[in-house]
Design brief:
- With 230 residues, the chain is an alpha/beta fold.
- It has a single domain, classed as Rossmann fold (3-Layer(aba) Sandwich), CATH 3.40.50.
- 29% of the residues lie in helices and 20% in strands.
- The chain has a 6-stranded parallel beta sheet, covered by helices on one side.
- Helix 1 crosses helix 2 and helix 2 runs parallel beside helix 3.
Length: 230
Amino acid sequence: MRVSDVQHVRDVPDAALRLFEEVMVASVGAHGRFLVALSGGSTPLPTYRTLAERPDLPWQHTWVFWGDERFVAQDDPDSNAGAAFAAFLDAVPVPRSQLFPWPHLDTPEASAEAYARAVESALGEHGAFDLTFLGLGADGHTASLFPGTGAALRTGATLVVRPEGERVRLSLGTRLLNRSRTVAFLVQGEGKRAALESTLTGEGDVDRYPARAIRAQERLVVLTDLDGVA
């Protein structure tokens, strides 16, 4: 992780909204489309709900992906994609063919392989996500790259991850996550302080703090309400 910008903000979802709009408009202006990889969890949900109130944005030129997902159907309450559709995607005019939720196939492995093909086809050989939102768990995980699983060290485009005590996860690997022009970590709440400090200040040991494996092609931003973290 080579952070170019740690922003201390009062309202992480609001800062995320402003960054989303900024990158969206700039990307459409620069190359005609905006490719975004969304994160799950509760932190970005207020951002997503506000986006539902912005039909004026260039949704027709937007492609939406997800950094990770639980191995569940989209109508499962734990589905990251399901939460995003309910919060805003059902309310904005993104063409359905430009939405890429993880498929729920017979096995996690089949789902991961199918998603790798879909994402790489959409990006093209030299394409990249314009913006990737990522969270940070109190244990140091990001997307579904959990510590102690070796996920952050694996080279696959997509991964099946089986963290102890958790549902089976599907995740983009660092190979695809790092194909992002701008990466934004959304880190909110005192319970994330130790993980963020260790992620930002530590060296090596990416299996313990997987977020350290994340890079951005242009800009890696941390939006946090935690004072005193540099």
